[in-house]
């Protein structure tokens, strides 16, 4: 959700989240807000100098942000003669945002301030296959309850951001041919929720959102990054030139449905056969182990078995890692990323899963991989930077 969309006339707050401005237009109030979000107070003159805007334009933009309560006076700067100029700073507590993470088998909601600090949260086991209306109505009902619990009104809500476990046409707010989401194809997700909360709603593939989070928090200097989520299913978020690459219909990075030799003709939940997800996804591993007489309750159950020393589970995870590594090797040679981040619930199995991806070789000098432990069953990831499991891979 961009600041310009929320602060400019005719932006998301007025015309919906899919309204877009002219990319060559002069910076708006959102540009000033992005500058001030670093926590450093600035004067109007400093803002004009950084943005290249006329002083009168900066004054208009600052007044708009002040009127919206998004920034506030932060004292006076040192005077160079005459009256000391006023500085302005970001007020993250002034507005709140709802974030919804919908996985194959779970739903997680959080209410945050504008700096991303979580004020309240809720989660539940919720099957995405129930269809869009029951799932989205749960999001709305529990989102409004979070607002109430935090003592915030709907007038303080900037909007809602939502991640879905399938390809999403980001500009339209609709899922497109999602393989494990019956009834969701081209359903107007944004419109359905906007009519209930009367606020902007932005929708994207969940792995794209994870990739953005990892890039912003842990790898801000990496212009080319792959975030691979290995949970109930398998997906990949692509950051290219510092921004998300989604492809023509939002399906870029759907590596879970690439054909792999080890899958043979095994059926996949997408309806095809031989997909990577059919042999390396958490759902497939749990089913295979259960069939062997080793009951596993989903992806998390597979991880728990591996931690208890189950030989069948460890063997399955290592083979899954090899299969994922084969697909990643091709992806790396084609995309040439500087960083690969492995996340999702199965990443908690550590080296047993990562042995395969760690063998990836590429034409870049180094590819770093890191297991990012998730916060819930399908792998919503929170990262504060490089962690245990960082590995520098030699040139292949």
Keywords:
single chain, 396 residues, alpha/beta, five-stranded mixed beta sheet, 33% helix, 21% strand, elongated, disordered N terminus, disordered C terminus
What do you see in this structure?
The protein is α/β, with parallel strands linked by helices and 396 residues long. It is 33% helix and 21% strand. The chain has 13 helices and 17 strands. Strands 6-5-4-7-10 form a 5-stranded mixed sheet. Strands 13-12-11-14-16 form a 5-stranded mixed sheet, with helices on one face. α6 packs parallel to α7. The longest helix has 25 residues. The N terminus and C terminus are likely disordered.
Unreliable sequence segments: 1-26, 362-396
Roughly what fraction of the amino acids lie in strands?
A: 15-25%
Task: Summarize the helix and strand pattern as letters.
Answer: HHHEHHEEEEEHEEEHEHEEEHHHHEHEEE
Q: Outline, from the CA principal axes?
A: elongated
Helical percentage: 25-40%
- Biggest sheet architecture: 5 strands, mixed
Kindly summarize this structure in a few lines:
By secondary structure, this protein is of the alpha/beta class. It has helices at residues 3-7, 12-15, 29-36, 44-51, 55-67, 132-149, 189-197, 206-217, 277-280, 282-291, 298-307, 311-335, 351-354; strands spanning 42-43, 71-76, 86-90, 96-102, 106-113, 118-125, 157-164, 168-169, 174-175, 201-205, 224-230, 234-240, 243-244, 339-343, 367-369, 371-372, 391-393. Residues 1-26 and 362-396 have low confidence and may be disordered.
């Amino acid at each position: 959700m961009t600041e310009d969309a929320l602060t400019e006339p005719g932006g998301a707050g007025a015309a919906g989240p899919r309204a877009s401005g002219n990319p060559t237009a002069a910076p708006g109030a959102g540009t000033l807000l992005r500058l001030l979000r670093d926590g450093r107070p600035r004067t109007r003159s400093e803002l004009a100098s950084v943005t290249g805007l006329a002083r009168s334009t900066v004054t208009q933009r600052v007044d708009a942000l002040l009127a919206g309560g998004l920034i506030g006076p932060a004292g006076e700067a040192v005077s160079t003669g005459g009256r000391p100029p006023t500085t302005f700073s970001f007020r993250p507590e002034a507005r709140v945002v709802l974030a919804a993470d919908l996985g194959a088998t779970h739903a997680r909601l959080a209410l945050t301030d504008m700096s991303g600090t979580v004020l309240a949260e809720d989660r539940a086991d919720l099957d995405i296959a129930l269809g869009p209306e029951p799932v989205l109505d749960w999001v709305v009902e529990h989102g409004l309850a979070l607002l109430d619990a935090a003592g915030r009104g709907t007038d303080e809500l900037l909007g809602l951001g939502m991640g879905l476990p399938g390809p999403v046409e980001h500009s339209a707010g609709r899922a497109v041919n999602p393989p494990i989401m019956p009834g969701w194809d081209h359903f107007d997700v944004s419109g359905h929720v906007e009519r209930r909360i009367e606020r902007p709603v932005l929708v994207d593939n969940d792995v794209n959102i994870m990739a953005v989070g990892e890039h912003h928090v842990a790898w801000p200097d990496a212009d080319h990054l792959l975030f691979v989520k290995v949970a109930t299913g398998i997906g990949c978020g692509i950051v290219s030139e510092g921004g998300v690459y989604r492809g023509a219909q939002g399906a870029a990075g759907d590596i879970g449905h690439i054909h792999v030799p080890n899958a043979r003709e095994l059926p996949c939940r997408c309806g095809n056969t031989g997909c990577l997800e059919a042999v390396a996804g958490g759902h497939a591993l749990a089913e295979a182990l259960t069939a062997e007489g080793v009951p596993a309750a989903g992806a998390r159950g597979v991880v728990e078995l591996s931690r208890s020393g189950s030989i069948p589970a460890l063997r399955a995870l290592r083979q899954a890692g090899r299969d994922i590594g084969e697909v990643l090797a091709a992806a790396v040679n084609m995309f040439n990323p500087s960083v690969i981040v492995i996340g999702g619930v199965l990443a908690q199995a550590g080296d047993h899963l990562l042995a395969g991806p760690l063998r990836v070789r590429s034409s870049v000098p180094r590819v770093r991989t890191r297991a990012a432990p998730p916060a819930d069953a399908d792998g919503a990831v929170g990262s504060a930077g490089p962690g245990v499991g960082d590995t520098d891979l030699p040139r292949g």
